[in-house]
């Protein structure tokens, strides 16, 4: 609706500078107050069914009954509003509801700042500086605590019946547990759907990363509707593959090659590390599993002074080679847990301003918001059509069976 220029000119009579419009008692704030109060008066007329002082209201059973003052916080700062009341106490304005003290969208701004990793004190300072609004730590906590209900619903939501690929890994976050600050593991599962979309399936916390706890995570995924996982990409945690196979016996476990290379370098002196990395590359870059085995033999001969590396690869060989049965572009998707590592980088960036969290809930609350922000930017996995064709050729019957049981 266009506003008459003559009205604007009248309002701006005597204008001297920006402060007159956007300042503490500027024109915008005054107009906002006037418009809100006028709208609520109109709502009251609609509610009662007659205008103020209209004789038609006599004997109607309800009438205007003065006003109530309230302070409304928003991007415009703080505004003192006069809210009309009716005698029967039935009037509930729609524009500014009963007991509402914050403008619509104001809570979202606080949540957005919280999701960026800002502390309660940072948020307080920012709102005071930008909008001249004083917000208590208690109010910020109340707003952010509402996120926990969403996080719990998200954590228990039904999942797809089948995920072609699931990446499993953990990061460590400092949080207070039973009275002391601990470095606790936050378990993360990322699933890739049949459409090639990545999604975080959940977040779980525990004192340490362990195969037994991962079994509990996988049990929860199964209880939430997952019937089958074609490929599980994991780090080299002892007992992890067995935990997966005990619950999803047909799942092929692929050890993360990047983790395996890092584990190999634990046995190597700093002087030899660069050369060892170069000589390990032909193993996982080989065209076939057979050629990879030959390259491993060559490596162990050349680096006989580090026999533990050869043993490490051979002990895990059956978990190393699954990706060799796929073409090169598909291998890039499955031979590393980079998808989780990338998510972890985003999460660490969000929590880096926090020394530690006062509780597990506080940590999960922020990590959940950070996950939503990150997932919203994710795109379909590259080369997914080629990967899905390979999966259909290799496991088409399992895909059809899982979908039939859903």
Structure description:
With 406 residues, this protein is an alpha/beta fold. The chain folds into two domains: 5-104, no CATH class; 153-405, no CATH class. It is 50% helix and 17% strand. It has helices at residues 5-11, 19-22, 27-48, 106-115, 120-131, 137-155, 211-223, 240-247, 257-265, 270-284, 289-302, 307-315, 317-320, 328-334, 338-351, 360-375, 384-405; strands at residues 64-74, 77-86, 162-177, 180-192, 198-206, 228-234, 252-255. It has a five-stranded mixed β-sheet with strand order 5-4-3-6-7, sandwiched between helices. Strand 4 (180-192) and strand 5 form a beta hairpin. The longest helix has 22 residues, at 27-48. The radius of gyration is 30 Å and the shape is elongated.
List the helices and strands and how they pair.
Blueprint (H helix, E strand, L loop, with lengths): L4 H7 L7 H4 L4 H22 L15 E11 L2 E10 L19 H10 L4 H12 L5 H19 L6 E16 L2 E13 L5 E9 L4 H13 L4 E7 L5 H8 L4 E4 L1 H9 L4 H15 L4 H14 L4 H9 L1 H4 L7 H7 L3 H14 L8 H16 L8 H22 L1
Parallel strand pairs: 3-6, 6-7
Antiparallel strand pairs: 1-2, 3-4, 4-5
